[in-house]
Amino acid sequence: MTRRPIVCRFDGHQFVPEGNYHLRNAATDYEDGALYRLAPVVERSMSSHRHYFACINEAWKSLPEKDAGEPWAQSAEHLRHYALIQTGFATCVESDCGSNAAALRVAAMTRAVVEYAVVQVSGSAVRVWRARSQSNRAMPKDEFQASKEAVLNWIAQRLGVTPETLARQSEAA
């Protein structure tokens, strides 16, 4: 079971769940009397988050015609996932399918089922890369910032512009 994060306030003596919502979640998700380790969570800036997605959206709109047929050029979201994979913010699963024919079938099925994956066949092996989630829960602030910079740099390089130019284009939109 995944435990929901509980927002607490320290009153000088103890941590108290903030409001009825968090109190109910604490009662449901955590065992009474059990010991839990607390760690502060540094929230990331929502303006940085919005800026990132605006930059990707504007970059996608300005992709060169030669890239139009690429699978990663279907949408801004496809572009973001592909850029995350290309910059190493991804997971990779490899499977030996026994033969090249079987690997090709597995790859075709994977492409049909996993929308944003990069799938590669090498002999009897299939490799599937999927972008890591950039949600607040899955990626802490510092890692999000590193992935944001890597993705925007990769996209800017692909477009032949500087990351600063890419940022200005999104602000002008």
Q: How would you describe this protein?
A:
Helices cover 47% and strands 14% of the residues. Strands 3-5-4 form a three-stranded antiparallel sheet. It has a two-stranded antiparallel ribbon with strand order 1-2. It has two domains: 1-40, no CATH class; 46-172, no CATH class. Helix 2 packs across helix 3 and helix 2 (46-61) crosses helix 6. It is of the alpha+beta class. Strand 4 (118-122) and strand 5 (125-131) form a beta hairpin. It is flat, with a radius of gyration of 21 Å.
Count every beta strand, where a strand is a DSSP E run of 2 or more residues: 5
Terminal residue distance:
43 Å
DSSP helix fraction: 40-55%
The fraction of residues assigned to DSSP E strands is 5-15%
Envelope shape: flat
Order of adjacent strands in the largest pleated sheet: 3-5-4
Oligomeric category: single chain
Mean pLDDT: 92
The major beta sheet can be summarized as: 3 strands, antiparallel
Structural domain count: 2
Element order: H for helix, E for strand:
EEHHHEHEEHH
Question: What is the topology?
Answer:
Elements: E1 8-10, E2 15-17, H1 19-29, H2 46-61, H3 76-86, E3 90-96, H4 100-113, E4 118-122, E5 125-131, H5 141-159, H6 163-172
Antiparallel strand pairs: 1-2, 3-5, 4-5
Helix pairs in contact: 2-3, 2-5, 2-6, 3-5
List the defining traits of the structure above.
alpha+beta, 3-stranded antiparallel sheet, two-stranded antiparallel sheet, 47% helix, flat
Summarize the structure.
The protein is an alpha+beta fold and 173 residues long.
